[in-house]
Amino acid sequence: MALFKKRQVGKAGEWYYCLVHQKVEEGPECPAKDRFGPYGTPEEAAHAMETAQERNLEWQNDPKWNDKTREDEEGTAT
């Protein structure tokens, strides 16, 4: 049995989206590996998955971060 339990510390007004429970929570209730945030409002946290999807698409289409050429994608590059 552990003598000291490490507790998640959060601030009032910080909102997170828990990936495991698929819910918005104020202050971190779940481990960092299982949540997105912090967000400024519960509404922003509720849209965390949409925000992540939009950012992923932006990143995938950003020429500064896309190292693949069309030939690499087709498998003909050497």
Main beta sheet strand tally, sense and closure: 3 strands, antiparallel
What is the ordering of alpha helices and beta strands?
EEEHHH
Compute the separation of the termini in Å. Answer: 57 Å
Average pLDDT figure: 82
Oligomeric form: single chain
Protein name: SPOR domain-containing protein
Biased composition (Basic and acidic residues): 47-57
Region (Disordered): 47-78
Q: TL;DR of this structure?
A:
This is SPOR domain-containing protein. Helices cover about 30% and strands about 15% of the residues.
Q: Care to describe what's here?
A:
By secondary structure, this protein is of the alpha+beta class. It has a domain at 15-62. The protein is built from 3 helices and 3 strands. Strands 2-1-3 form a 3-stranded antiparallel β-sheet. A hairpin with a 4-residue loop joins strand 1 and strand 2 (23-26). The longest helix has 13 residues, at 48-60.
